[in-house]
Amino acid sequence: MTAVLAVMLLAAVQPAEAQQWRQTATVMADVKTGHATRAFIDTVANRLRKSDTLMVRRSRDGEPMRLQTLQHSLLADGVGLQSANRMFIDYEFQIVDNELIEEIQDIQLIFRPPSTTERDISVLYLDAEQEMVADVMRESGVPDESNVAMTHYFVNELSFPALSLDQNVEVVSAAGRNLREGYDQRRKVLMRQMKTFIYDRDKVYHTRILADQ
């Protein structure tokens, strides 16, 4: 635990260069009704149903398949496309000049059974470089409660700071190392680093997706 935390902190104090800081992290967020996570899954599911040509995968290393095949595969495991109740999001953070850039790289949707003795079930893997995923994140979102003409786009609603404020996301890996405990401590460390860069060092925070490179 201490070693991983030290790595994260040391990364934040590297000598000033064009890229002053870089960090990767994976977080797990709950999928709840009324939250952006649920709206995102519903939007993706609706988009997939409108196309019979897109190839999808249940996991990063899974075999590509058509939606109908995916649905049959999920049904065999007793779940559906919208059964996901957790999502794992891979981020990369870096500071370049006066910007703190957050990049959403991919999202893994899973169904986690209530019993701790049962295994997680992979539902859908979403590569943020894929055109459909990129379009949903850039062009769709959650309507503003006070102004229905305004949309909070998923690219921002699924950002690390937004999810951290909306719910207690768990940081499950950092710098490529799995973290088995102290989730909230890791989340607070990352948030503290970001606040330092944004407010104390006057950095502009910018969220993008892998397809934007």
Structure notes:
The chain is α+β, with helices and mostly antiparallel strands and 213 residues long. Helices cover 34% and strands 31% of the residues. The chain is built from seven helices and eleven strands. Strands 1, 4, 5, 6, 9, 10 and 11 form a seven-stranded mixed sheet that branches. It has a two-stranded antiparallel ribbon with strand order 2-3. Helix 2 packs across helix 4. The longest helix is centred in the C-terminal third of the chain and has 18 residues. The chain is globular and about 50 Å long. 28% of the residues are buried. The N terminus is likely disordered.
Question: What is the structure about, briefly put?
Answer:
With 213 residues, the protein is α+β, with helices and mostly antiparallel strands.
Structural class assignment: alpha+beta
Low-confidence stretches: 1-17
Task: Compute the number of helices.
Answer: 7
Give a count of the beta strands, DSSP E runs of length 2 or more: 11
On the 0 to 100 scale, the average pLDDT is 83
Radius of gyration: 18 Å
Gross morphology is globular
Order of helices and strands: HEHEEHEEEHEEHHEEHE
Q: For the terminal residues, how far apart are their CA atoms?
A: 33 Å
- DSSP helix fraction: 25-40%
Largest sheet: 7 strands, mixed
Strand content: 25-35%
Give structural attributes.
alpha+beta; 213 residues; seven-stranded mixed beta sheet; globular; two-stranded antiparallel sheet; single chain
Secondary-structure topology with pairs:
Blueprint: H1 2-11, E1 19-30, H2 36-49, E2 55-56, E3 65-66, H3 67-76, E4 86-96, E5 99-111, E6 121-127, H4 131-139, E7 141-143, E8 151-153, H5 154-157, H6 160-166, E9 170-174, E10 177-178, H7 183-200, E11 204-209
Parallel strand pairs: 5-11
Antiparallel strand pairs: 1-4, 1-9, 2-3, 4-5, 5-6, 7-8, 9-10
